[in-house]
Amino acid sequence: MLEKLPRIVSHIYSIILILVSWVIFAFEDLSKVGEYIKAMFINNLIYDKQSIYYLQNYIFIIIIGILCSVPLWKKIKEKMNEKNSKTFEILSSLGYMAIFILSTASLVTDSFNPFLYFRF
Questions:
Q1: Which residues contact 30 (CB under 8 A, 6 or more apart)?
Q2: Contact status, residue 103 vs residue 115, Cβ threshold 8 Å
Q3: Which DSSP state fits 113?
Q4: End-to-end CA distance of the chain
């Protein structure tokens, strides 16, 4: 059925399914899952003070996430392959190393680690 619908519908369906399935890992007590899903979709439909706070503090990370979720890198790679593939390989390797170092530094400096699997 999803194959007949436009691609954006299946993409939104996947995102909602992933969000709801991650709720299982957020709690040790499964009785709170229903309340959490209700809060996700019914209580805060548009925005509240907390969502504005997170948007202001994490706007840079959100923009990076949006840019990394589109096929921008594929198009850049195609353009660079036309000119010089070695330059693109070096730049992408440096970019991956920078992201790895920044991610590791962020995890190490946080006093609370939100990584869900550390709880299990």
A1: 24
A2: no
A3: -
A4: 36
Dist CA 22 CA 27 (whole Å): 10
- Please give the full DSSP string across 22-77, using - where no structure is assigned: HHHHH-SSGGGHHHHHHIIIIITSS--HHHHHHHHHSHHHHHHHHHHTSTHHHHHH
Nearest to 34 by CA among 52, 26, 89: 26
How many residues comprise the chain?
120
- The per-residue pLDDT string of the chain (120 residues; one tens digit each, 9 = 90 and over) reads 777 888 888 888 888 889 888 888 888 778 888 888 887 777 655 677 887 888 888 898 888 888 878 888 778 777 777 667 677 778 888 988 998 998 888 777 766 656 655 555
Q: How far apart are CA 111 and CA 120, in angstroms?
A: 18
Place of tokens 């993409």: 11
89: helix, coil or strand? helix
Extract the tokens encoding 15: 């995102």
Q: Which residue has the tokens 């330059």?
A: 87
